[in-house]
Predict the 3D structure of the following.
Amino acid sequence: MPAVSKGDGMRGLAVFISDIRNCKSKEAEIKRINKELANIRSKFKGDKALDGYSKKKYVCKLLFIFLLGHDIDFGHMEAVNLLSSNKYTEKQIGYLFISVLVNSNSELIRLINNAIKNDLSSRNPTFMCLALHCIANVGSREMAEAFAGEIPRILVAGDTMDSVKQSAALCLLRLYKASPDLVLMGEWTSRVVHLLNDQHMGVVTAAISLITCLSSKNPDEFKTCVSLAVSRLSRIVSSASTDLQDYTYYFVPAPWLSCKLLRLLQCYPPPEDGAVKGRLVECLETILNKAQEPPKSKKVQHSNAKNAILFEAISLIIHYDSEPNLLVRACNQLGQFLQHRETNLRYLALESMCTLASSEFSHEAVKTHIETVINALKTERDVSVRQRAADLLYAMCDRSNAKQIVAEMLSYLETADYSIREEMVLKVAILAEKYAVDYSWYVDTILNLIRIAGDYVSEEVWYRVIQIVINRDDVQGYAAKTVFEALQAPACHENMVKVGGYILGEFGNLIAGDPRSSPLVQFNLLHSKFHLCSVPTRALLLSAYIKFINLFPETKATIQEVLRSDSQIRNSDVELQQRAVEYLKLSSIASTDVLATVLEEMPPFPERESSILAKLKKKKGPGAVSVELEDGKERGELNGGGDRGGDAAIAASNASTPSPSADLLGLRSAAPVSGAAPSAGSLLVDVFSEAGPAAASAGVNDDGFLRFVCKNNGVLFENQLLQIGIKSEYRQNLGRMYLFYGNKTSVQFVSFSTTVSCPGELQSQLNVQTKTVEPLVEGGAQVQQVINIECLTDFVDAPLLNIKFRYGGALQNISLKLPVTINKFFQPTEMAAADFFQRWKQLSQPQQEAQKIFKASHGMDTEVLKAKLLGLGTALLENVDPNPENYVCAGVIQTKAQQVGCLLRLEPNAQAQVRTRARAHTQMYMHTHTQMYMHIHTQSPSVLLCAALIASLTAVCVFLCAAANQAWRAGNTQLALFSLALFLSHSPPLSFTPFFHFLIHFSPHIDSTLSH
Amino acid sequence: MIGGLFIYNHKGEVLISRVYRDDIGRNAVDAFRVNVIHARQQVRSPVTNIARTSFFHVKRSNIWLAAVTKQNVNAAMVFEFLYKMCDVMAAYFGKVSEENIKNNFVLIYELLDEILDFGYPQNSETGALKTFITQQGIKGQFQTKEEQSQITSQVTGQIGWRREGIKYRRNELFLDVLESVNLLMSPQGQVLSAHVSGRVVMKSYLSGMPECKFGMNDKIVIDKAGKGGVTDEVGKSDLGGGGSTSGKQSIAIDDCTFNQCVRLSKFDSERSISFIPPDGEYELMRYRTTKDIILPFRVIPLVREVGRTKLEVKVVIKSNFKPSLLAQKIEVRIPTPLNTSGVQVICMKGKAKYKASENAIVWKIKRMAGMKESQISAEIELLPTNDKKKWARPPISMNFEVPFAPSGLKVRYLKVFESKLNYSDHDVVKWVRYIGRSGIYETRC
């Protein structure tokens, strides 16, 4: 019904809302909403024209339903229609709906923008404000694109109403924050700045928010605002409380504006213009003065407003940091607040003082409040306030009051909240180190710290103590004594045990003179804690024990007993077990001299930034930063000469050993970094050579080579640092080999380089091309290298691979033979029986046959044999030989120069009677006790090598000898020597007779070759 | 092991709170209210786990019943108990409503003490309970010592569900086969899923301790009988239930459960259902079948979208049973799109109306005979919306009631033996009734 109270009543809406509120269940509510939605849909159906009132009412209902959490997918058009209404309420609801419900990519956005544009250009200030508010609420990019040009014009136009200007300034701010690239101030800048002079305080307040935001982005363009802001501020500050009427808040003139002005000024350095600066200082003084005046009202709002300005002024003073007078006054003012009833004020005072303490002008002034702050630390009820107090104590600490502050913090630590304990511990540790004049005091403090709050003492803290003790001779004795005493407490924190173990291990001898702390007593004391500790600590203690053996030979028996016990030497933890085994061996094998060298006292740590400080910096963001600034100058006093004091043990140990249980004694990694005598390193290798794999050493490493005769992929080489994997493929006379270098450590290898060389005449037989690898191999990473190989003619030797890199500063050099053998270029050939035997007979000349009889050292498994023969590269021909026991193979060796056909016959003999025959250029015949025949019909001596290689695989040494013999006779000295080398590297105590035989026969030749 | 049991009204106020075990704290009551009753999103799962505590709830009109436990209980057992609890309350004071619960506050606590002991469900047979939990309270003069001791022995005895010495002048027996048929059908008339869940409910007014034997056309029994050549007495098999096709003799029951009075050992060995019935009303068995279901109605939908703003719907329903039978309370519910702005309906039979609050056209027909068909057509006007989402087209659902068992189940006999008293099977008046109702009976459109 149209005529009914066309005002703002909207009875239907009220009824609907009360219906919803009265619903007894969710289902009832949903039913009611569905009904209402259907009703609205039928009204909006389009065939009826709705008047503005009903439209507004239904849009309102939709809005309400949306706010209840239901989706609304219609009614947008009606809302947009409302925008063009002339009634304020209808327009308002339309804008409301749009800012809540319309998303930016709606197709209606053009219509909406159009309506907004109309409103912006209308002369009606309320409509303009509504439009501006809508833009600010939506704040989308499309809106910004459409209106970013329009709004500044409205903002600075002379005839715009004040309220509209206010809205425009805030709207612009919103758009600028949302999409800064679209809002270009350029030409408007100066006029916007001049808004600071506007008559209307509201406009100034709104404009200053905009200016602050803009000037923080590009300060230079808005530089002029400083003087305007200062003059504005001075006008406000000096005005009587009644001058500003509406803008006086509980007797404080324009507090919000003042705060904003002060904050704006903090974007800039102190004004250079003397007059402006004078005026500003005057203002700040007035603000400080006003703080002293008795309050004009008892209301909390009054003091809040006043203090807000005061704190903002103080932050400005701190920001300038150039007016000693003001700084001291600010400090005094804050000092008063320290004892204020209001907790918030105390908190703020402490926080501001923290920054004041870092200024050179006010540092002394802050220090006068030390008692109050300490009191606050102890008595404050609010943990955040206590935290601030602790921060302030840390900030105000210097050489004069360090002892007091550290003592207070230590005593507070016992009752401190868990949340701030770790930070407190770090702070105490840093202060104690930074201002330590007397290092025994430092040691006392840190040990106390560990005792009181062991759980919160991070690794860095106790590393640091050890560094300092090691780097300073004068405290070592004292430290040993104190640690010894501390360890006597029945319950010790694990960190204490760590420090104790380390220090006694290094400097236990300094207190061993006293019968109360004789070596055995020391050891027993440490060992009594052993079983209560975690694995890393135990590992450290084991290292301490071995050091004891060095320091006090009389404890050797006891300690060896401990190391030998099952709980150590068979410990399930591999680290502990290894240490126990190694230390036990070391102590029993090495001479005292060797022990003394290996277990020498740790060298001083290199000087670096304190790791604790780094940790605190990481923990705390901005708060601590200003304090750190003085570190530079403080460090000078602290570390005296500069050669002492030191860095975290972690740094050193991390560099040397990647294992998580850093070996502080530097034992395992003796050679590379710690600078222990180089002899110690090599001795160590001797001692351990029988246990564990030999470390990478210079000289050609052969053991991987032979395995690759019959296979193409696998691991060629592996030690603690490096693993080299191979993948290779061959086609005809070409081959490609992929080498994978894997860094097994967590530390990168630097200047990593590999070279492949072909020694001697191999250069003319084999063409090898490599691609260079990256010089840096990250920890745990793998790099790949491709090698292209071309076989020019038959060859005997293998190319050499040389790898060089630096690991932890030490140069590593590894030489390997690349597994490239002539059989890789075999191409298998299938042929029928008749064909085979025909060819076999053709190759009947004595120099075309090699025959060998050898004894199989392993059992003969058919499958293994087949796999081996296939791996050789030849084709295994089935059903060719009349005797099924025999194996027959055929293949062609592909070289660039020629192709050599090879036929091979392996005749296993189950009888005890054995012969091996290998026929090549010359015939060779030998009696041994094997069960295999091997026929090799070939025209090439290199095939002989293959035979040799196969033989070595099955560890048939005798055959090797024979091969050497054969080669020798053939005049191929190189091959002979190679076979010999193979023989030597594989010499199990099988049968030396043929070898001697060989030697006797050929020794003159060998001599001559060697001399050659 | 139920830890506790709470009853709330629709606002979440606690009406009844009974805690059986110490591991359920006071805050459990609030936890359920906050997390389930007042949850922002409607909680649809009947089991809710909050802080390692499980809440099982059922809702009866506006009343929430929640059982709480910290242990890993058999959820089916808990729900069985909750439903039983509702039945017991209904047997004592009628409808389970807030008003009734408040009025019978003491009685409910008394019942809860009796039917749950330390969280373990006890005898919940209404008949037995009514002998010793009475609304009037036990008064000395009405119940002698003997009677009291008799109750004790009966309740703790082997046949806890029936007391001795019941006498009726007329021995009467009512047997209802109640089935609900569930269906989901594709628009082309292909059955996607269908099953019948049925109950056999009995009301017995028999004297003494009679022994009953119940027989139906279960496939296994019939086959066995057929093979053995022994013809069972066909007795009452023709009572009512004419809807099914005459050719079909037996039905395959997928699974069934029995009242506690049925001797399961006998069922296992001989497949015969024999029992001593409780006095009054009880549910003898429940069963489920999925094969050869008679679908009483076929719904043929036709939905046509005419442009963006119009939708034409035509729905034909066909009844598929003997013309002599009458289906009742037929209701077809046709969902409408969410942006419906107006609906015009024409139907030949019954009444149809667009219900905006439920977003559906509801078509009601009071009665309809078998082998008939009827149709409705509707024009739905739509309002163009911003959403590009297509309408999901929820299925058309249907409600009805037919006087036969859609599963094809037939009662073959129900024999009563009472050796001590002087009445025989012939003296008992027996009534059998079949009612088939719709469960979720939906056709996609």
The CA atoms of residues 485 and 517 of chain A lie 9 Å apart.
